[in-house]
Design a protein that fits this description.
The protein is mostly helical. The protein is built from 19 helices and 2 strands.
C-alpha cells in the first residue's frame, strides 16, 4: 500500500533560495536522471548484500519458524485469555502468509482440539479469532480427507454459536464465514454436509426477508452484518450445487432478495446485489432463455442504487454502492461481466464471472494480503482457479523477475528525495513570482 511521507521544506535562507532560483528551470529529464543515477549506484551495493543474504541457512530459519508456531499452539491452552488471543493472532498471520501443510498435517488434531476449546469456552473475541484460524487451517490442509475430518469435528460448535442469538455478533459472523469456506473446500460434491450448511445459513439471512405484507423487518444492531456474512457464505456454496437444486433456489430466493435491495444497510444491499447477479448468471448457464421475474422492476431498483445521491449516506458508501450496482445492472441488462486480472508472481488469474468473483472474494477475505502467495503455491487454490501445478522458477529466472525489497527501498528513497528537491524549486519559483 502506498505510504505518505513528509518531506523537508526548502530552506528559507537567502543564499540557498537564490541558488535554487538559478535551477528552477530544471527539466523533467534532469529529475529522472537524478533518480536513476542514485538508484543505479545503490543497486550495485544492494546486489552484493542480496548475494550475502542468500547464503543464510534456510533449514535453520524453518526450524525457528516451526518452534515459534509450536509455542503459539501451546499458548492456545494457556489460562490467560490475553495470551490465547495473541497466539490466535500469530497463527492467523502465519497461516495466511505462508504454506505449512506438512507441519500442520502432523498437528491438525491438536490444533483442532485447541480451537474447539476456544470456541466453547472463550469470549466473543476469542471465538471469532478461533473460527478464522480454523478456516485458515482447512485451506492449509488443502481440502480432502484432513479438511473434511476437521470440518465434521467443529461443525456442531460452529453451528451452535451461529444460531445463538445471545452470542457475540462478531463471533457469529466469523462462524458463518467458517462454515461457508470450510464446507466449500472439504465438499467435493452435493452431500449431507453441503445441504445442512446451506439450510443453516439460509435460516440466518432469510430473517431479513420481507413479511407477508411485503414490509422489511426492522434491523437489529449488528443484524445486517450477520445477514451479509451468511448470504455471502451461502452464495459461495450455491456454486457447488447441481442444476436441479439451483433451479429451486432461484424460484424461492430471487424475488425476496430483490425486495432486500431496499435494506437500510449499504453493505447488506451490496451483498444482496452481488448474490442476485450470481444467481442470474447460474440461471442463464442452465437455461439460455432464463429471465428474471419482474425484470423491469429489478432493473429500476438497480438503476436507483447505481445513481443514488442521497446526502444522508456517507460519501464512500455512496461511491462503493454506485460502482457495484452499475456492474450488476450492466450484467442483468447486457449479460456482460467486467473482467478483472489478478497478478501474482509471473502469473495471472482472470476473474471473468460472478461465480469466480464470489470464490476469489471469499478467499481474499480470509487470506487478506496472503491470497497472492496462496494462488502461487497452494495447490487447493490453483486447482480451484485452473492454474495447474505451481510454477517453480530457477534462481536466475526468479532473480530476473523480482526486484529485492532493499532495491525497492533504495529506489523509493531516491525518487522521494529527487521529488522533494524538485518541489522545493517549484515553491521557490512561485514565491519569486508573487
Amino acid at each position: 500500500m502506498p505510504r505518505s511521507r513528509k518531506g523537508k521544506r526548502g530552506s528559507s535562507k537567502p543564499g540557498v533560495k537564490n541558488g535554487m532560483k538559478g535551477e528552477s528551470g530544471a527539466s523533467d529529464d534532469e529529475f529522472t536522471s537524478d533518480v536513476l543515477s542514485h538508484y543505479s549506484s545503490a543497486s550495485e551495493n544492494a546486489s552484493v548484500m542480496e548475494e550475502g543474504s542468500e547464503q543464510v541457512d534456510e533449514l535453520t530459519a524453518q526450524e525457528e519458524t516451526e518452534d515459534k508456531l509450536k509455542q503459539c499452539i501451546d499458548n492456545l491452552m494457556d489460562k490467560s485469555a490475553k495470551t490465547r488471543l495473541a497466539a490466535l493472532e500469530s497463527l492467523r498471520q502465519a497461516f495466511s502468509s505462508r504454506l505449512l501443510y506438512e507441519f500442520l498435517t502432523e498437528r491438525r488434531l491438536t490444533v483442532s482440539d485447541c480451537l474447539e476449546r476456544s470456541l466453547k469456552k472463550g469470549s466473543g473475541e476469542e471465538q471469532a479469532a478461533a473460527a478464522t484460524v480454523f478456516t485458515l487451517l482447512c485451506i492449509q490442509l488443502g481440502g480432502g480427507d484432513e479438511a473434511e475430518e476437521g470440518f465434521k469435528m467443529l461443525l456442531p460448535i460452529l453451528t451452535t454459536i451461529l444460531i445463538d442469538n445471545s452470542a457475540s455478533i462478531a463471533a457469529r459472523q466469523s462462524c458463518a464465514r467458517a462454515l461457508g469456506m470450510c464446507c466449500y473446500v472439504s465438499t467435493a460434491e452435493e452431500g449431507e454436509d453441503l445441504n445442512k450448511t446451506l439450510a443453516l445459513l439460509e435460516s440466518i439471512f432469510t430473517s431479513s426477508y420481507p413479511n407477508r405484507e411485503g414490509t422489511l423487518p426492522t434491523a437489529k444492531p449488528g443484524g445486517p452484518g450477520l445477514h451479509g456474512a451468511a448470504l455471502h457464505a451461502w452464495s459461495l456454496l450455491v456454486t457447488l450445487c447441481p442444476a436441479s437444486r439451483i433451479t429451486v433456489l432461484l424460484d424461492h430466493h430471487l424475488p425476496k432478495l430483490q425486495a432486500c435491495l431496499q435494506s437500510s444497510d449499504v453493505n447488506y444491499r451490496i451483498a444482496v446485489g452481488e448474490t442476485i447477479a450470481l444467481l442470474v448468471e447460474l440461471g442463464r448457464e442452465i437455461d439460455e432463455e432464463f429471465e428474471v421475474e419482474d425484470s423491469d422492476g429489478l432493473c429500476e431498483s438497480l438503476k436507483g442504487l447505481a445513481t443514488d445521491g442521497n446526502k444522508h449516506r456517507a460519501k464512500n458508501d455512496r461511491r462503493k454502492q454506485r460502482s457495484i450496482f452499475r456492474e450488476v445492472l450492466h450484467y442483468i441488462e447486457n449479460e456482460d461481466f467486467t473482467d478483472e486480472k489478478i497478478r501474482f508472481g509471473v502469473e495471472s488469474v482472470y476473474i471473468d464471472s460472478w461465480v469466480r468473483r464470489r470464490i476469489y472474494d471469499a478467499f481474499k477475505e480470509i487470506l487478506e494480503s496472503g491470497v497472492r502467495h496462496h494462488l502461487q503455491f497452494n495447490q487447493l487454490l490453483r486447482d480451484i482457479f485452473g492454474l495447474g501445478a505451481p510454477i517453480i522458477l530457477d534462481a536466475a529466472t526468479s532473480k530476473a523477475n523480482k526486484i529485492s525489497r532493499f532495491e525497492k527501498h533504495l529506489f523509493n528513497s531516491a525518487a522521494f528525495k529527487a521529488r522533494t528537491k524538485q518541489r522545493s524549486k517549484v515553491r521557490d519559483k512561485r514565491a519569486d513570482v508573487m
